[in-house]
Amino acid sequence: MTNGTNPARGHICMLTANMLWGLMAPISKDTLNYFDEHGISAFVLVACRVAGAAVAFWILSLFVRHGRTASADRRQLLFAALLSVVFNQCMFIVGVSYTSSIDASVITTMLPIITMLLAAEVLREPITSLKAFGVGLGMSGAILLILGNGQSLSFDRDHIIGDLMCLAAQISFAAYLVFFKKLISRLDAVQLMKWMFLWATLAIVPFTVPELSKINYAEIPASVYWEVCYTVFVATFITYLLLPFGQRSLRPTTVSMYNYVQPVVSTTVSLVWGISTFGVIKGIAIALVFVGVYAVTQSKSRQQIENEKNKPT
């Protein structure tokens, strides 16, 4: 796999990844409901995700030609794994256990804003009026879509603790997008992910071994196994394989903006399955999301602004 940058491919990869993540919401919800009914913690699903994806990436690496990963790069990938997988997924899972799914969904809309601010500070990416407008528009659409069923936010003590954990998860992933952009641009996607998920597996799985050993796997219905397989191999392995291609060719804020596609996909699936109904508000919300994403992709980068300044008149 090559490391060349291709914005069109980057957009396709990020759109596809976030559509697959959006599908995971209604699919994994059934799995988590089953786990909750049978006293199995959500961390078991997280452990399955990281361990299953790690195995898949290491197997794939046997068939894909890539360079040797330097020890210094492996150390950096340890911290990348902590931010993008361990802290992000674990803090979010714990946060959701304290707060409501509505609160958690609304807080995920903060990711592009946090990423935009971090990128401005660390990478000196300008916050143009068009970029700020696009982020705000996309966030408005996502929140309108999430709250469109008349549900409201909660502000009791437990919910606030959960909300802060969910916010920490977004900050963690935003930091990964910004601080590791150069490393991601330099290394092969399989090379990146096989090490990141190995580190994540070593950080998460040992804590879930006692619980994993007590589960009666014969009693788990086939439908739950299929849902877990989707979560591991489609919504983790494939999506994280696509992620570096988006990060390599797109700015961090643009990558994070595709996060708004997830509630659109979740809502669409709910409509198809007859769980929800479509109305004018949802139509407006979906339009705001896609217009917001488009506006951010059209905003000028630091390089473009510098080139315009240096252009002979």
Commentary on this structure:
This protein is 78% helix and 0% strand. It is mostly helical and 313 residues long. It has one domain. Helix 1 packs across helix 12 and helix 2 crosses helix 10. The radius of gyration is 20 Å and the shape is globular. The relative contact order is 0.21. The model has no long low-confidence stretch (mean pLDDT 83).
Summary, kept brief:
The protein has 313 residues and is mainly alpha-helical. The protein has 14 helices and no strands.
Write out key terms for the chains shown:
313 residues; mainly alpha; 14 helices; 0% strand; globular
Number of helices: 14
Structural class: mainly alpha
CA-to-CA gap between the ends?
41 Å
Total number of strands: 0
Shape summary:
globular
> What number is the mean pLDDT?
83
How much helical structure, as a percent, in the residues? over 70%
Order of helices and strands: HHHHHHHHHHHHHH
**Beta strand %:** under 5%
